[in-house]
Design brief:
mainly alpha; two-stranded antiparallel ribbon; globular
């Protein structure tokens, strides 16, 4: 290439192929944001309809908690199996199959049936949704080099928040006016529509992990196109395939980021299943008010998530190591969120408690993006999706335990059980934040894996 051509590319001019690739990358990212929105709307619908379902099916809080925990019975197993499988094939088809299964799983309880049907459908839905987050992140990262992944990774994680923010008011209205089973039909239809869009517009790029050259771009045909500016490449793919999973899983970074993310997910599970009931039965809001207020922690989480992505990217561009840009920033948010949750019993009034719940859970909820980008940086290319899948499998066991435990606490302690559950969550978040801030160092551990 001529010097003029090189200078033009360095100044930011892009070929039509480059522009097409970037457009495709952001189209796929947008679809995966909606994918995660549907995913968490599916998760949140039972929590929004908790009182109606318990009254309709004559369930105790413990039984309702167990029904929600059933969602996670195969969730973690599916995350591991599909995560490993996604390392060997493009995740495009896997994502399509998951979306179709989500819609199918909504049908049995929408048609009718009691607790057994509800539990069975939630088990199937959980198995289909278990791999969603790691596979969606893996598919997104395939379109971007490592140093450009903070924003798209955060946006896909933001889909979790947007799913609840957009679904909660609408689903609450449907539940109040047209029955909770109608809400399941609506979710099934939305899932099918998304699957059609993904079939025609979805795809996978070439930047599978940080092993891809930072200067490369992904093309829709799957061919890497390096820029003219020479950049050092990481260890070759063949070297990554020789790193056993046990070495990745024994690194301080993987262990600490997984433990920290576990505490984050515990709070997420608590919000999804029991926060609407806490606002209604514990703090005295009407069901309509609770349906609107339940979005506050998720709105706060969206702000924190985008702020975290901006701060992390800013620090990395200035040469700050990911030990601080990811582990430190994420740990600070988790720890602060835990302290705020611990303050809930110390204030009086529904308004003050609601504000602390929104801030505390909102701060903690941003850690998912940190966890995904950290493990993606740590793991070799051939192990990235598996490492993300196993992390997600371990983390989401929090969803198996939290709803059932809080259900027992509500049955045995009354409305005090809700607040005590928040205190337990706050203590867990504080520990998770400390682990992240002190032990997460993906650059160090990645170098050791390739030593």
């Amino acid at each position: 290439m001529s010097a003029a051509g090189t200078t033009s590319r360095q100044l930011g001019d892009a070929t039509p192929e480059d522009r097409s690739t970037r457009s495709r990358a952001w189209t796929v990212t947008g679809l995966l944001v909606v994918f995660m929105m549907i995913n968490f709307a599916d998760k949140s619908v039972l929590g929004l309809a908790a009182d109606e379902i318990r009254a309709d099916l004559s369930l105790s809080a413990t039984q309702f908690g167990l029904a929600n925990s059933a969602f996670f019975l195969l969730f973690s197993v599916a995350a591991v199996v599909v995560g490993m499988y996604a390392d060997k094939v493009r995740p495009t088809t896997v994502i399509l199959i998951m979306a179709l299964l989500w819609s199918v799983a909504q049908v049995p309880p929408a048609v009718g049936g009691g607790l057994a049907v509800l539990i069975g459908s939630r088990i199937v839905l959980g198995a289909a949704e278990g791999p969603a987050f790691p596979v969606a992140q893996h598919a997104t990262f395939s379109w971007f080099p490592d140093h450009r992944r903070n924003l798209p990774g955060a946006l896909v994680t933001l889909g979790i928040t947007l799913g609840v923010i957009t679904a909660a008011p609408g689903l609450t209205w449907i539940i109040d006016h047209h029955h909770w089973r109608t809400a399941l039909w609506v979710l099934a239809a939305v899932g099918l529509l998304w699957a059609v869009a993904w079939y025609f517009l979805g795809g996978t790029g070439t930047h599978r992990t940080a092993d891809a050259p930072p200067g490369g771009t992904a093309t829709p045909t799957g061919t890497a196109t390096p820029t003219d500016t020479a950049t050092p490449t990481a260890a070759p793919e063949s070297a990554g395939t020789r790193v056993p999973y046990r070495r990745i899983f024994s690194t301080p970074t993987w262990l600490a980021v997984t433990a920290a993310y576990f505490t984050c997910y515990w709070g997420v599970a608590l919000m999804l299943v029991w926060l609407p009931s806490y606002l209604h039965n514990g703090l005295g809001y009407s069901s309509a008010q609770a349906g609107r207020l339940v979005v506050l922690p998720w709105v706060m989480g969206a702000v924190v998530l985008l702020t975290q992505a901006g701060v992390t990217g800013w620090l990395m561009r200035r040469g700050v190591s990911t030990r601080w840009a990811r582990g430190g920033v994420g740990g600070a948010a988790l720890g602060l969120g835990g302290l705020v949750c611990l303050g809930v019993p110390l204030v009086d009034g529904a308004g003050a408690k609601t504000a602390l719940l929104a801030v505390g859970f909102g701060l903690a909820g941003s850690y998912a993006a940190i966890a995904a980008t950290t493990v993606s940086e740590l793991a070799p290319a051939a192990r990235a999706s598996g490492a993300l899948g196993v992390m997600n499998a371990v983390v989401t066991t929090a969803g198996l335990a939290a709803p059932a435990l809080v259900g027992v606490m509500v049955d045995t302690q009354g409305t005090d059980g809700y607040q005590n559950a928040v205190v337990i969550t706050g203590a867990m978040l504080l520990v998770g934040g400390l682990l992240s801030a002190t032990l997460v160092d993906p650059s160090r551990d990645r170098a050791r894996l390739h030593a």
